[in-house]
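Task: fold both queries, return tokens.
Query 1:
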Amino acid sequence: MQKQQCNLAVLQILKEESDENHTIKTEKIISELEKNYDVSVERHKVISAIKALQDFMYPIRSIRKKGGYMLLSHLFSKAELEGICTCIQSATFVDQCRSDDLTNRILGTGSKYHRQAYHMHVFHKNNRKVENIQVMKSIEALYTAIENGYKVSFDYMHYGEDLHLHIVNKEPIIIEPREIAFKEEQPYLLTTGGKYSGIMTYRIDKIVDVRILNQKVPYINQEKDAIDLANERLFMYGGKQMQVTFCFKKSLLDQIVDAFGHQFTLRKCDDIHYKCTVKTNDNAALIFAQKYIDAVEILYPEDLRNKMYQMIVSAEKSYEKPL
């Protein structure tokens, strides 16, 4: 084995067998080189390889009392490693098989002790994972279409009575992909050119069989990026964009900021209520008001307030009926 190859092999062993809390002795490095790389080296060559790696600014500390070495820093810290892997396992739009593959690859950048700690204390299977195994393939195809300005076609799924996803469209859906945005931990495709004017949204975890078409997407002057568009679309509902004024209990301020961001001015209604005006759409405003019905009141626009009133009256009638 050439000197450079030996240095890289020693580095890989240090990554696997040591970290900021665990050392590896020279004898163990020699043993690992023989077992995993079929290389027999003398002690002084290992010491020389570690010195060369230190000269290249790798954070390797020599621990004389314990007679070993430790790699102080990996690609990710232990906390970063566990955080990233937990996010992957928590993401319901990534199927379990792909989640496990991604998790194992990321854990592979840390030491074996990092992997053991994650699986012992952090890792949990997520039983709400999507059953659509095409999600990542769809995202890749959609990004390619967006980058090159082509239309796409796809099939769209909804849950049936058997609680499994089924294709609901009779003909392929053809649209103009514009952006991919994440909202409420789900990926959405923002499109134009559909059966309704303006921006439409599709849950990517319900999209299958994406096909890039040889049809160019017409140019539009899109001043807002995916984050801005997603922030305006609470729950990613479509609908008419408008200014909506809420009166809400002061205790709900966190939820208001989480839903609509910071771009509004608080005003006092009374000692226990604020009011604010936010930009959103009619469907999202109604859903938000329903979600916090005991703490939120729609003040404006009047037609939206009336629509909310009719929904409350209808709901009251439903609950009047005895079971």
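Query 1 returned. Query 2:
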Amino acid sequence: MRKTVYSFLFLISALSIAAGVRAQSQGAYIGVGAGSSNASFNSNDFSLGIPQVSESADKTSTGIKAFAGFRFNKYFGAEVGYVDLGKFKYNYNGGAAGSAGIDYKVSGFTVSGIGALPVSEDFSLFGRVGAFGSTAKFSLASATGNVATALANAGFGVGSGDSANKTTLYYGVGAQYDFAGKFGARVEY
């Protein structure tokens, strides 16, 4: 197993609550959101190469985010945020040969431009594109038997870990509905 950058692809669909400005108004706003997140593991980075050991991954988690933005006009805005994609797990099960579990956590900061298409006074569709500066952290949660020995030979004991930083493209689409007053709800992918 390499101690290199692990690639994570994520899709977070979130129901977000935004406060501060209606979709078609200009000005500052803040919000929070939560939703499902998915990880894509590169098997070359994780495989132990032991034939009797099966490998699996828990690729889904619940992510959260906090964001702030500024709408320049009813069509364009910019947003920054903090995203925690949750915790993922990679498992090794070799029966009598032993087992191991590695915990992964991905979080980071986003910056994006937003283009909006107002459908009505209270409802708009939007798209975003920007960057996600993420940190992926892993730690060996448990290990037994020959699997523990193989991981120890690679320099990983229970409780040890590493992290990698990476900047990736951040993009998505969504819809926002603004309620009376200065509150709205978003669904995005």
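Both queries returned. Flag for query 2: Confidence is low (pLDDT under 50) at residues 1-14.
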